[in-house]
Amino acid sequence: MRHILLCLSLISTIPSFSQDKPADNPRLTELVMSMAQRSLVMPGYLTELKALVARQAFDFWENGNTEPYVSHLNVYQALYQANKYLEYDFSKDLAYNQVGFHSNAVTSLVFGSDPNAYYSSSTDGKILKWDLSNPKNIPEVVYESDKIVQSIEVSNDGKVLMAIFYQMGLALIPLDQALKDDISVLEDPEPVQTATFLPGERKYLTVSKKGDLMLKGFNAKTENLGKTALKVNQLKVDEKEGTIYAGTEQGVLEAWEKPYAVKESPIEDIMANWKNQSYFGYELGSFAINCLDISPDGNVLAIGRDRGDVILWDILEKKLIRIISGHQSTVTDIQFNAKGDFLLTTSRDGTARIWDLNDSRKLPTILDDHKDWVLTGSFDPTGETVITGGGDEYIRTWPVDPTSLANRICSLVNRSLTEEEWNEFVGSDYTYRNTCSGNN
């Protein structure tokens, strides 16, 4: 029922642009949406039928001239829910895309240099390493502490992982074997609000509890670079321009920018000229800024807020591009894919969403199966998979392209719709064919 109400509320918000570009086959679009909805409401014990109706809806959607702005959302959700019940482990209540070894909320998910390896942190104090290609494998415990891990981050070279502790300090954890042989875990006990690596370096920035912006690192001299009177939720460094951004609890986007021409690497230049920095505070409203990400081309800053929306900010022009709305509660995490054409958001409303930045009219793909707040999410390096985690202690993997969900159905269901089922869910005015090629 939750899925139906959500889809209906989203459909009701579609603007009049759909009249400017009518569907090539509105009747087929209506059939696709009807079949997707009927699959969604079908009970899980009708596993094969639920899956085949969703698969046939996908086939019409993929190969027919259907309206693109709504139907893709319904088709994805129907395919996902159908796949959930195929080979479902009822004894452990585990779906096919779900893993869980944390004993408390999953707070952060990041990929390292290996595209098949990602790391998760939790309020249980553990950091685990997972194999994306073998999700059911037991993860490796990379780090364990009695502290609450607020978030984690991997250095650009993938050799060091930073664990930021809630209301405490942080730890630098070597991931590369050569580094492990030379150094052990380095702990910085100074309590911090947040921290981040500098791009391309093993130095890092922190914001202390008192609001001091500090530059630290391996064998590096600690420098005080500035001060803020606001509570900082996240730092982000723009590798292209050398600007440091801070998202604050008070809804102000803070920026430390350089007022001079870059002579060498932006990061090296900004570090050598801190005394010449310019500070700016952009008032974006009273809603807390919880998360930030910069597009791969360095032109756009994405800002996730307590309001449940995302601000896209033009870095060069220093102005708002547009606001993306849809979540019903706080946006907790945000990330561009590697190409910069899709944006992932997670929220306390229990969903993650994938937004197509090339077409603002298109509804987002809604990833809706966590039983609690979704606190973190990430694209894999290829952009083909999304991972999410949150308050229900589980990590889930989601294919971005629904084709893999459709293909999985045909690999597991050894039949097609019968002619009677076809007439009921499709109709006798559409010529019968096998839902899955090769199945009778």
Short description:
The chain has helices at residues 2-11, 17-20, 26-41, 47-63, 68-85, 177-182, 266-272, 403-412, 419-425, and strands spanning 98-99, 106-111, 117-122, 126-131, 140-144, 149-154, 160-165, 170-174, 186-188, 192-197, 203-208, 212-217, 223-227, 232-237, 244-248, 252-257, 278-283, 289-294, 300-305, 309-314, 319-325, 331-336, 342-347, 352-356, 365-367, 374-379, 385-390, 395-399. It has 440 residues and is of the alpha+beta class.
The number of E-state strands comes to 28
Which runs of at least 5 residues are low in confidence (pLDDT < 50)?
Answer: 1-23
Shape: globular
Q: Strand order across the biggest sheet?
A: 1-28-27-26
Rg estimate, integer Å: 24 Å
* Percent in helix: 10-25%
The end-to-end distance, rounded to whole angstroms, is: 32 Å
CATH superfamily heading of the largest domain: YVTN repeat-like/Quinoprotein amine dehydrogenase
Overall number of structural domains: 2
Q: Hey, roughly how much beta strand do the residues contain? A: 25-35%
What's the architecture of the largest domain in CATH terms?
A: 7 Propeller
General description of the model:
With 440 residues, this protein is of the alpha+beta class. It folds into two domains: 2-91 and 404-425, no CATH class; 98-400, YVTN repeat-like/Quinoprotein amine dehydrogenase (Methylamine Dehydrogenase, Chain H, 7 Propeller). Helix content is 22%, strand content 35%. It has nine helices and 28 strands. It has helices at residues 2-11, 17-20, 26-41, 47-63, 68-85, 177-182, 266-272, 403-412, 419-425, and strands at 98-99, 106-111, 117-122, 126-131, 140-144, 149-154, 160-165, 170-174, 186-188, 192-197, 203-208, 212-217, 223-227, 232-237, 244-248, 252-257, 278-283, 289-294, 300-305, 309-314, 319-325, 331-336, 342-347, 352-356, 365-367, 374-379, 385-390, 395-399. The strands form seven sheets. It has a four-stranded antiparallel sheet, with no helix packed on it. β12 (212-217) and β13 (223-227) form a beta hairpin. The longest helix has 18 residues, at 68-85. The radius of gyration is 24 Å and the shape is globular. The model is unreliable at 1-23 (pLDDT under 50).
